[in-house]
TrEMBL record, chain A:
Involved in ubiquitination and subsequent proteasomal degradation of target proteins. Together with CUL1, RBX1 and a F-box protein, it forms a SCF E3 ubiquitin ligase complex. The functional specificity of this complex depends on the type of F-box protein. In the SCF complex, it serves as an adapter that links the F-box protein to CUL1. One of its GO terms (biological process) is jasmonic acid mediated signaling pathway. Pathway: Protein modification; protein ubiquitination. Pfam families: Skp1, Skp1_POZ. This is SKP1-like protein. Residues 116-162 form the SKP1 component dimerisation domain. It comes from Oryza meyeriana var. granulata. Keywords: Ubl conjugation pathway.
Automatic annotation (TrEMBL), chain B:
Belongs to the TUB family. PANTHER family: TUBBY-LIKE F-BOX PROTEIN 11, TUBBY-RELATED. Residues 115-197 form the Tubby C-terminal domain. InterPro entries: F-box-like_dom_sf, F-box_dom, Tubby-like_C, Tubby_C, Tubby_C_CS. This is Tubby-like F-box protein. It comes from the Eukaryota. PROSITE patterns: TUB_1, TUB_2.
Amino acid sequence: MAAATDDAGDSNEMIRVVSSDGEHFEMPEAAANLSLVLRHMIEDDCADAAGIPLAVVAAKPLAKIVDYCTKHAAKSSGLTIEEAEELKRFDAEFIEVDTDMLYDLLVAADFMGVEGLSKLAVQRTADLIKGKTPEQNRETFGIVNDFTPEEEEEICKENEWAFQITKPPSRLC
Amino acid sequence: MSFRSVIQEVKGEIGAISRRSFRSRPHRPGRVRRVAAAVEPDEALLRQSCCWTQLPPELLREVLARVEESEGRWPRRRDVVACAGVCRSWRGIVREIVRAPEASGKLTFPISLKQNKSPRWHEHLQCWCLNFHGRVTVASVKNFQLVASDESGSTNQEHEDVILQFGKVGKDMFTMDYRYPISAFQAFAISLSSFDTKIACE
């Protein structure tokens, strides 16, 4: 566990990480430092050639997270207005993913402590929720309605007028 | 990889999902999933739809708090109400996040405004009576008072604050009294709507 111990602050160093399903990824140390978990591992000299194992992050989301961190680390300080806008556009495109990937990113970014990505994924999820009826939200996120018929009827009755403006009553719940 | 071993891998995978809060994917997700869908449609469906239900509560809270804080006004505010109607866990979290109208200055759940001050049956006059403190003089089913209720549904009616009252004082003449957090516009809109639906008769 001592292969990468010479200089923890050296941003040219490549850090290896391993997904839960055994795929290896590499990113600059500056990128890895955007993850609180990876930063602590690097500080504790746990970043060796075998790679830091991330037991709960699968390859697909991890590839995205490595992309995100690499991009943001390269543009971390002294941004011009154009660069800041470019980064914003990158974020907007980056988070245009299906709900499966969004879920994986949300959980993985939280687990790895990548603050910027966590916020991005939380905001994207909130944006997906907005403008939908309860039923549409259940469909979007694959959530099972676990209210009893009585509870549901009560909620429907309670909320009826809130949705009457644009939605027929049958879509309320 | 044999067909049987693919199925075993898929089944093992599904078992693993229910034990862990985070979902891992098989090495070749496309291929394995397709086989799963062909052989075990129910389990494949379960696998697809289960993940958001397993979202850790603290993350769900962050997401729903973001929805809550983004819109303070109607009709966009109904997004918050919609979240509370999705399932039990969403409802529980939304009800924790949303504060009472007096504290937040926001009207959220329709139920947080209620025609409550229920009228009392007056034995002597043989009619339903509601105290409008002299502001309403003509008996009418259109007369109503709205109180802000907390989640539990206050039991002591005497101590509830009337935040909107509306009632008849003459032919085609009404009085309207309102107070924070209801705005003049909201008060006027609610009062006007009573001509259409007769809140008191609900």
